[in-house]
Amino acid sequence: MAMAMARLTAVLTRGALPPPCRRALCSGAPLGAELDAAVRDVVCSGSGGLDEVGGRLDRLGVAVSPALVGRVIDSCGESGGVGSGRRLLRFLAWCRSKDPGALGDEALDRAIGVAARVGDLTAMRIAISDAEKDGRRMAPETFTTVVEALVDAGKEDEAVRLFRGLERQKLLPERGDSVGGDGVWSSSLAMVQALCRRGHAREAQGVVWHHKSELSVEPMVSIVERSLLHGWCVHGNAKEARRVLDGMKSSGVPLGLPSFNDFLHCVCHRNLKFNPSALVPEAMDVLTEMRSCGVAPAASSFNILLSCLGRARRVKEAYRILYLMREGKAGCTPDWVSYYLVVRVLYLTGRIIRGERLVDAMLESGVLPTAKFFHGLIGVLCGTEQVDHALDMFRLMKSCGLADTRIYDLLIEKLCRNGRFELGRELWDDATKSGLVLGCSEDLLDPLKTEVCFKYMLDLMDTSQEQEQDFGVLLKQGAEGRVFLSTFVGRKCVIKERFSKKYRHPLLDAKLTLKRLNAEARCMTKARRLGVPTPVLYAVDPLLHTLTFEYVDGLSVKDILLGFGSNGVNEERLNDIATQIGNAVGKLHDGGLVHGDLTTSNMIIKSSNNQLVLIDFGLSFTSTIPEDKAVDLYVLERALISMHSSCGDVMEKIMVAYRKASKQWCSTQNKLAQGHGYAVFCLCGVVITWGELGWALSDSGRARGPDMLNARHEGGRGVICTGPDVCNGHSSWPTSKP
Known about the structure:
The protein is elongated. Among the domains are: 457-550, Phosphorylase Kinase, domain 1 (2-Layer Sandwich); 676-738, no CATH class. The strands form four sheets. It has a five-stranded antiparallel β-sheet, with helices on one face. α16 runs antiparallel to α17. By secondary structure, the protein is α+β, with helices and mostly antiparallel strands.
């Protein structure tokens, strides 16, 4: 009963109230600010389906006017969003149903531009279709926006079809004399530039070909040629870019710095991908060509080269280019980008001190850095775990007055993740005093809430550095490790330590070092099982990254052969050493093991029994491929030729022993001969070699098949008999040495 009385009271109350005041549609009365904002909210950022737009606008009771339509279109363009384009079209359809004359001629054109800018290609296509049905032309600016949106979205074919369709319907945009140019020129040029901007130079050439009569006069010719050059360079086709550049030079088209920079960018990135060694020579050729055409290279030109050199980690060449710029020998002075590119590659390759000196030299020379300069370098230092140097760079950044929120956030999080909460708190307090609002959470400063990612790894690295002096007396140091003389349970031993590389990430460095350490231990153990004399492996320490070996007392083969060169060759001992080398390598290869660094420095002759011992299996790996074994022998051959040529043909003696020790010498020697660029196949099966008396049968006698190559001989080449019918039973062989 009470509920019924409440409903009756509500009905009577509504009947007593006057009806709400609603604005008459199409009245043209000025809208209030609140109502105007409500309309824009419904169209631009309202929720609900498209069908609800008209109903909500009807309930608002707004009056349609060109001013309202213009404000709504502008608001949709500012708010963005993919769906706003279709809601805008629904709003225009609603306005057309209320007052067809209130839209004006520019409303649909502006809506097309807004849909293109916000990326709503569906709404853009619908609006363009409506404009074509009404026979309306797009404004030149709108057409440019449309084709650029299509090309940027990867729909260059659709952009070309749209251009051709508008051309057939004679609806291409037109420009009056006050703007300059006619309709065909402005549309075709916009089409060419939009395509070339994304590297679609081939499609752009088609447009130029179809409109060559309109584009064959200045200034269109120059603009089109420069656009095509840019398009081919973005595409990465240096050959076509060179063709266009030569055509521009022959036709007298003025060439500027942007055109040459585009071509230089294309050449450098092609060489970066396929031939990094040609980066500097070919870039210098382009810079010389620039000067011959009267275009002075700028710092931006050299920055293109420096960027590619940095990506290829060619540190010396990059540093040399910067030095020439600083000394004034390059024709221009470096800017902060030039210094940044070189310092960055120095940091990435572990040359921290040199990089810091270069930064100081930049500031002394008066080159002013930007915040981006410090952001990049501090990011590199943090990424390579050089946090202390990153803090030094941050202090320099503060002295230049360029410290901002981003760099505080980066350093605070990095310090806390590494367990250095005190320094993180200091930076937090410093930023707070400076009035900066940090983006990182204060929970980072709480050790109970922050996970320390690299604390164990940093402690491990510190432990390795502290115990470094306990390994013993340093004997030698190479690129991958250090060798110490020490003792092991009372025995004289050798400790090989694989040290960490500072330019690598700690986790990656630890994995690589441990993997290579285990591989060396496995290969050495396997070689010993195959009967190859190697030092006895005493211990492997995966934490300190060390291997402990038996100490071999003796001279290296390198020292012995060098002694032969100065004191005369001891043929008996030389033959014994060569035989032992051939036997050891043959056993290795038959067991599927490749040494990887077969040089005379990695072979020791024991003083006690003159036995050969192979050492340093750091580059060893398992392989049964003949090419890998041939490379092993080729490395040994080059080492003998370069260091011990005075000892005669040692390699021939080694190969004689290798053929006796290895059952698979046939395929390996075949690949080795091919590596020398020489291969003649035997049909009758007789192997011929060059000796002191000329051509003669080799010691191996008959070959085992038609694919057998001859044995090694003096000079690195030989010949195989081509059959009795050709050689007359081996009586008419060549009389000259190959």
